[in-house]
Amino acid sequence: TIAQRRLLDQAEAGSRRYSSQAYAGRSQKAQQIREMLDRLTKVPFSAIVIGGETGTGKGLVARILHHGGPRGAHPLVELNCAALPRDLMESELFGHEAGAFTGAIGRHRGLIEQADRGTLFLDEIGEMPLDLQSKLLKAIEDRKFRRLGSEREISVDVQVLAASHRDLEAMVREGGFRSDLYHRLSVFRLELPSLRDVKEDLEELVPIFVAELNAKAGKQVKIIPDSVWGELHRYDWPGNVRELRNVVERCVLFADGPTFPEQWLKLSAANNPSSSTQPNSTNGLYIPLDGSMDLDDMDRYIIETTLTAHQGNVTAAARALGTTRETLRYRVRKYGLRESA
Question: Could you give the CA distance from residue 176 to residue 251 in angstroms, rounded to a whole number?
Answer without folding.
Answer: 41
